[in-house]
Amino acid sequence: MIDLDGLHVGGYSLGGFASCLDIPTFKVAVDIGICLDRVISRDLILITHAHVDHLGAIAQHVAQRGLRRMEPATYLVPPGIEDQVEELLRAWRGLDGGALAANVVSLAPGERFQVRQDLAIRPFRTRHRVVSQGYFFERTTKRLAEEFQGLPPDEIRDLRLAGTEVSVPVRSIDLAVTGDTRLDAVLENPEVAGAERLVLECTFFDDRIDVEEARHRGHVHIDEVAEAAAHFSGRALLLNHVSPRHARADARRIMAEKLPPELLERTRLMVGAED
Question: Which of 222, 244, 251, 264 shows the smallest number of beta carbons within 10 Å?
Answer without folding.
Answer: 244
